[in-house]
Amino acid sequence: MTAVSTTVLSSSLRAIVGQTQERILVAEKEVASGRRADLGLWLGGGVREAVSLRRDLAELNRLRDTNAAATVRLEGTQAALQAELKTAQSFTETLLTARDNPQSRDLVAAMARDHLASLIANANTTSGGAYFFGGVNSGEAPLADYFSDPASAARSSVEAAFLAEFGFSFASAAAYDIPAPAMETFLAGPFAALFDAPGWSADWSRASDEPLRIRISESETAEIGVTANADGFRKLASAYAALTEFGAGAVNDQAFRAVIDAALSAIGEGVADLSGAAAKLGAVEERVSVSSERLERRITLLSARSDDLEGVDPYEASTRLTALQTQLETAYALTARLQGLSLLNYLQP
Amino acid sequence: MSLTLGLDIASSSLRASAANAAVASRNVANAGDPSASRKIASMAWTPGGGVRLAAVTRAADASLHEKLLSATSSEARLSVMSRALERLSEATGAVDDEGSPAALAGKLRDALQTYADAPGDALRGQAVVTAAHDLARSLNSASAATQTARAEADAKIAEGVARVNELLADFAELNAAIVTGSRAGRDMTADMDRRDAVLKSMAEQIDIRTMTRADGDMAIFTAGGLTLFATTPRTLSFTPTPLFTAATAGAPVYVDGVPATQGGPLAIGGGAIAGHVELRDALAPVYQSQLDEMARGLIALFRESDVSATPSQPDAAGLFTYGGAPAIPTAGAASLGLAADIRVADRADPARGGDPSRIRDGGVSNPGDPAFVANPSGAAGYSTRLLALIDGFEAPAAFDPAAQLGDTASLLEFAASSVGWFEGQRQTAEGNLEFVSAQAQRVGEAHANAVGVNLDDELARLLEIERAYQASAKLLSSIDSMYGALFQAIR
């Protein structure tokens, strides 16, 4: 004869009720949060992928942020370059006119002075404490104020070079007698040497030749190569400085033309170089923006995969919850029913 | 045949009914006790044709009981492991917690990325130091939690050993009583039930096999074959270790003088003791070695090299340092306990008089030595070293295969694999536990059904006994009236 033990009869239902309640707790959590209640238990070794995904997502988001900051910086750099180019180009026209009108020399000198000041200001463009044209030495203003008082190192060197060449200062009346070829020789020789790389770094610039490097995706870095040491900046500075210092004042008309000619050729070279730099910078901007777009796409993709791994189908979870509730109710009903099922209830005392 | 004989038989029947009723009411009284078995009254004929109670036996099923013991051991072992792993998972922040070493390593890399974007920004350098601190601390606390789990397991082993010894003493007493009682023909069923309960408690601690011998005598062995009880109880001995570090090896449990927790065919393979031993000697040490390797990988990643034209000095520990700095630790035994020891170098920490820009420039190891400074001018935009460090997080590196995560991986992948390994262990333990629990429950039910009490059954039997009693009483009164008629006739 097989009989069922009375303790089993009551304890098995009790165990079912306990288990069902535990599962309801899990299902409730999942319905409410939309995520697995215990991710580690659910995925087991697959957690590795979930952890990697989260980490990659954090990195991509961070790169997106730094790329946005880099874009701002690149746009600022590009704007400064474009402003400089525009100034130089329009100044070329002024100079071409002035070449045949020596009487406008004071005006030209004043304009050159303004342009030199704005060149220095543009080269010193800064954002968030970092100088765009400083190279890796982004913590210091690349160019010092040329017109400072006491006289800047750059200006003193220019004056000293003139004195060494001609034996008198530019302000003296003797300057009228400087012949055009002598002026040309001076401008092409000792004066131009001040704007060569060593002279420039000694008197003018604290920028580093080492370009700034930024990371624009998980595997790519980009260099922001244009610095205040670029040929273009030096040429433009030499043209503006020559006109500022030697454009006005006592020199005769031929010497003045020699100054204008030298300046025109320097501006031409400078514009060509800066245009090249602006184009390169544009290419970097393009790379950053392409990389940012790719980052966006990867973020969307990885988020979807992450949701797949960690998320719960809300429909499935709530159906499960309902089924479990029904099961629990059945267990309760059965317990009550079994309680009444005893021979004791049918025996007459 | 005589009336006297009839009277004798009827009264023996009354006594038998009373004995039967006594047994049935014992069964009813014990219906709620899961360890009590159903008692059966066996009747025998008396020479004159009457009945008497020959013996009280109990329903028993030796093979089911043996299965029950084995299922109990398996369930106890797995439930210990699954609970311990769950607790450790909470303490070390395995998945959901953003404070796990794997998540914080990713955060440190991201902080470096932000810093590299504006290397002149001291606040961003400070953020890198903070992230590095968080990572070092999470490794420290995960290592501490792992060793605490080992110490707890060790204490639990000691408790388990003491409990088994107690139970063995109880068992010896009960067994002796049963043997003597059985030889004297007494009803020893209640003692047998209690002895079975003792065995079940013992199976929760250690996996056992039993062997029944003459007169209800029983011997106990571990599943590996070591004797726990044969006429006299043997002892389990164990010396608890109060403090655990990564280098501590826990003491073995001795059964009857034989070490039984170090693998091999004799080893204890079930029960809570086995679960605790497995956690203490296998799982936790592997996890610890993974944490140690992570710490070693970090120290190696942030190491600084001699950058002078003719390098002459060995690499030195940089942002992350440890007790044995400046040497870079090697893989294997040298990295033991590194996770507890790793910390952020003071020279990079502004809170301790350091300078975070040394992370960018190099020179954390020794700021006074220009050979380790890659950016001597201190240029604010210098990002080359930071970018190299960021790349280092994803670059393949060698790891100790003893950590069970392969020998080559990037630091970040290694950290993620460690979480995967841990949760894999947890999932396996939990899955096995679910299976074994269901099995244990089924075996328990089958055993209870085979030997347990059914109230309805007992009530029905009581009705039968009542009828038999009534019939016997009626018989007595009939015989009595016959005697009355006889005596009347004589008078």
Helical content band of chain B:
55-70%
Overall geometry of chain A comes to rod-shaped
The chain-level mean pLDDT of chain B equals 90
Largest sheet entry of chain B:
4 strands, antiparallel
What's the gyration radius of chain A in Å?
Answer: 40 Å
Number of helices of chain A: 10
Sequence stretches where pLDDT stays below 50 over 5 or more residues of chain A: none
Class derived from helix and strand content of chain B: alpha+beta
Order of helices and strands of chain A: HHHHEEHHHEEHHH
N-to-C SSE series of chain B? HEEHHHHEEEEEEEHEHEHHEEHH
Oligomeric state as shown: heterodimer
| Terminal CA distance of chain B | 24 Å
Total of DSSP H or I helical runs spanning 4+ residues of chain B: 11
What percentage of the residues of chain A does DSSP assign to strands (E)? Answer: under 5%
Please identify the structural class of chain A as seen in this structure. Answer: mainly alpha
Q: What is the topology, as strand order, of the major beta sheet of chain A?
A: 1-2
Counted beta strands of chain B: 13
N-C termini distance of chain A = 27 Å
Question: How does this model look, in words?
Answer:
Chain A is built from 10 helices and 4 strands, in the order H-H-H-H-E-E-H-H-H-E-E-H-H-H. Chain A has helices at residues 6-33, 39-43, 47-99, 105-123, 153-166, 180-194, 197-203, 231-246, 253-310, 314-340; strands at residues 126-127, 130-131, 212-215, 221-224. Chain A has a two-stranded antiparallel sheet. Chain A has a two-stranded antiparallel ribbon with strand order 3-4. Chain A starts with 5 loop residues before the first helix and ends in a 9-residue tail after the last helix. The mean pLDDT of chain A is 89. With 491 residues, chain B is an alpha+beta fold. Chain B contains 11 helices and 13 strands. Chain B has helices at 3-29, 62-92, 101-117, 122-183, 189-205, 271-301, 338-341, 357-361, 384-394, 411-451, 455-490, and strands spanning 39-45, 51-58, 208-212, 218-222, 227-230, 232-233, 236-237, 254-255, 258-259, 320-321, 343-344, 396-398, 408-410. In chain B, the strands form 5 sheets. In chain B, strands 3-4-5-6 form a 4-stranded antiparallel sheet. Chain B has a 3-stranded antiparallel sheet with strand order 7-8-9. A two-stranded antiparallel sheet of chain B has the order 1-2. In chain B, helix 2 (62-92) runs antiparallel to helix 4 (122-183). At the A-B interface, helix 1, helix 2, helix 3 and strand 3 of A face helix 3, helix 9, helix 10 and helix 11 of B.
